[in-house]
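Researcher: Next entry in the queue.
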Amino acid sequence: MKPIQLVDLKNQYLAIKEEVDQAVISVLESSAFINGPEVKAFQSELESYLDVKHVIPCANGTDALQIALMALDVQPGDEVITPSFTYVATCEVVALLNAKPVFVDVYPDTFNLDVQDLERKITSKTKAIIPVHLYGQCANMEAILEVAKKHNLPIVEDTAQAIGSTYTFSNGDQKKAGTIGDIGCTSFFPSKNLGAFGDGGAIFTQSDELAAKLRMIANHGQSRRYYHDMIGVNSRLDSIQAAILRVKLRKLDEYNDARFNAAMFYSETLGKSENITPPFIADFSTHVFHQYTIKLHNVDREGLIEHLAGKGIPSNIYYPLPNHKQGAFAHVDDGSSLPITEQLGTEVLSLPIHTELSDEQLVYITNSILEFVEQ
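Model: Structure for this entry, 375 residues:
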């Protein structure tokens, strides 16, 4: 049996080595390293895949979020609502603009933003809402859209973990994650479902006006070369990464299917234990399983992690300390409690999930988990 990885990037690369190597060589031979044809082609192909009017490639997912908030004119003192149970980048960009992240709780089943808590946290200073499509499935966007419309607030979707996931509205309409709100943001960090071989990100929007502004901000605030209409940043997706992403985009649905099949094996096997709650899949969203995250009950989590490590099985906790408890956000801590978020931090454990998991590895992993939790 091959060694088990949380994300097996090497064997994924070997399966597409010929295509990737040729794509990279083509860029090297063209010497079009910045904003070359590969970037423009990837942009167009991702627009088609997502059925979105505009894709603005950028340097990474954190930049994507910051540029989105800048395009919405978030100013110092403004409030931006975000779940606390997310990677720090979602909240970090708010603080970088000297705005205030306002943390909301999440649902105990989907781990996504609690819409009732969202509405409770809206004030006259609220400037935007950032729902996070955590672990691979969409937040309840229809309900979030209703709240946003009621309060006239824009939505920035953080879809770094859910690219390729599909949201189904109550009327049967469907949209891809990241194309439902005003702006969508994603990351192409190597471990993502659509991952580059370095950093990368992108911003999505259906709005011509926002797209023009997002492009300007990502390119030093330029409307044309050397004419800077606003303060911007330097955030580009380089041509080599775009060429690699073009290859992998063609396989994204296949990759997501492989993750889903592995997840279903996990859930069917681990769900037999009273001490484990497998991931819940909402009826309004597909799940692309960027992470496969279980909840443990009456189990020594650290002991399980150590037990699995001893058997060559990596695992991780996403996330052990919620953002509203992080020292970086002590200055905005109002002392309020987010009970579900805080509880999840003590219960969750993420298992290996990627495109290269074999049946032999899945059986070995699940048997090793049950051996510990059922003792």
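Model: The mean pLDDT is 97.
Researcher: Noted, moving on.
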